[in-house]
Each structure stands twice: as C-alpha cells, then as structure tokens.
Specification:
mainly alpha, 3% strand, 275 residues, globular, two-stranded antiparallel ribbon, nucleotidyltransferase
Length: 275
C-alpha cells in the first residue's frame, strides 16, 4: 500500500506543480475541472445515485462551476463573491459537525447532494482566483498546497505520539485534538518563516499572514471531516479507487476543498489591508 501511495504521488505531483507555473489560467481551470468532475462523480456515488443520476449530477456541477469559473476569469470580483459564500458554507458545516444533534443534516441526501456542489465549486473557483492576474499567485497556490500537506502530516505525527483526546469520534475516530494543534503549530511556523524570511513582511502583515495560516489549517480539518461524514453515512471507507494507494480523488482533495477558498479569501483581504 505504501509503495503504491508513493508511486502515485511521484507520478502526479511534479506535473501538477509544473502546471501551476506554466499553464495560463484557462488551461489550469480546465485541468482542475478534471478533478472536480471525478470528485463530483464520487460524491454522487456516496449519495447513492445510480449511473444516470451521477451523470446528470456531474453535468450540472460542471455547468454551474464552469460558469462561475468563467465569471472569475472575466472579473475577479465575481470569484470573491463565491469565496465569501464558501466561507459562510464552511462555517455552517463546522457548526453542524459540532452541534451534536441526534440526526445530522448530513444524513439527508438532499443536503449531501447540495453540499457536494458547495464543496467542489468554490474550491475550483478558489484555484482560478489565486492563479489568475498576479505573477505571485501561482506561488501562493503552491504555498497553500504545502500548508495543507504539512498540516495533515504534522497532525498525523502529533496524533500518533501525543493524541489522547478524540476530536470527532463518531465521524473520524483517528483524529485527535492534539493532532490538530500539532498541525496548526507546524503551519504557523512555516507561515512565520515564509513571511519573515522569504517575503520580508512588515509586522502587521506578518501576523495577519500567520493568522491566516492557522485558520486555513483549522478549516482544512473541517473539509476532511465533512467528507468523512458523507463516507460514514454511505458506509464506505474510501470515496473511490482511481488513485492506487490513495483511494478516490475526494480522499486526496477533501482538506483542499475547504482550505483553498478560505486561503484565497484571506489573501484578498490581507492585500487590501496592505494597499
């Protein structure tokens, strides 16, 4: 299993990173669309739709998301509006996960189907928003990918060594509070180093940058938990089998679906404050 995980990562990561810097925004949007479509297919399957229903769901998802992505490429303010809506959605998802009600709204298929659109489309828009317009933005997109990977890896290590308190045992039994704290500390250190040494930010901007990293690390956990909840309702461990050793596309991008739009929103706010 580990061999397949490493092999899949070695094959996919280099061309994806190259695409961030070499592809023009429309081409990257089309590449991301491939992951969104596959993720939408997997999400529809988790919601119990048959082949015909999945095709309809994916077609509607692609049409709706594609229209918003096109609007973002034409006018970044359209993308900003989508990111604001995404922030409200992820806040609602967090409240719903911690509410503790006997029957979660995520157990309703209609909510899950709508949730798939709200999970995948803003992530697509967020990638395009970060990539278009500013020469620095491809680097910012790579940065948020590294942030999420670091948060996940550090949380895993901290949880294995120090984990005692379960974060959400009914949703994701392996996650611990200590692991989440470890992940947040790791990304805060990375953000401080990049802000202070690499980008040489002034104090106010630096602490805003560090704060954004902490928020992104926390929100990435929410994205992970939402997909875990949907899989638990569906009674499956993985969203699919398309990536050897990793499961489905959703299993690899779950944390990114929440982290990317929130990071893109924070990026815009921080730069407006600095202007």
């Amino acid at each position: 299993m580990l061999k397949w995980r490493l092999l899949t990562a070695a094959v996919l990561i280099p061309p994806l990173v190259a695409a961030l810097f070499w592809f023009p925004p429309p081409a990257l949007a089309a590449l991301v669309a491939l992951f969104i479509v596959i993720g939408g297919w997997e999400w529809a399957a988790l919601c119990g739709l048959g082949a015909g229903g999945r095709m309809t769901y994916v077609a509607l998802l692609a049409a709706f998301g594609g229209a918003l992505v096109l609007a973002t490429l034409i006018d970044s303010d359209a993308g900003f509006a989508v990111l604001l809506f995404a922030a409200a959605w992820w806040l609602w998802a967090l409240v719903e996960l911690v509410h503790g009600r006997r029957r979660s709204l995520f157990e309703r298929r209609g909510v899950r189907l709508a949730g798939g659109v709200l999970v995948l489309v803003p992530a697509w828009v967020g990638v395009v928003y970060l990539h278009a317009g500013d020469p620095m933005r491809p680097a910012a997109l790579l940065y948020v990918l590294v942030l999420v990977w670091l948060a996940d890896s550090a949380a895993f290590l901290a949880g294995k060594t120090l984990g005692r308190t379960k974060l959400a045992p009914s949703v994701s039994p392996g996650k611990t509070v200590e692991g989440v704290i470890g992940g947040m500390l790791a990304v805060v250190l990375l953000a401080y180093f990049c802000g202070k040494i690499v980008w040489q930010l002034e104090a106010r901007a630096l602490w805003g940058w560090v704060g954004l990293a902490a928020v992104v690390a926390l929100v990435s956990v929410v994205g992970d938990l939402v997909e875990s909840k949907v899989k638990r309702v569906a009674g499956v461990k993985d969203s699919g089998r398309i990536l050897p050793g990793h499961g489905g596309v959703l299993d690899r991008i779950d944390a990114l679906t929440s982290a990317v739009p929130i990071f893109a929103l924070g990026w815009r706010v921080l730069f407006q404050m600095a202007a």
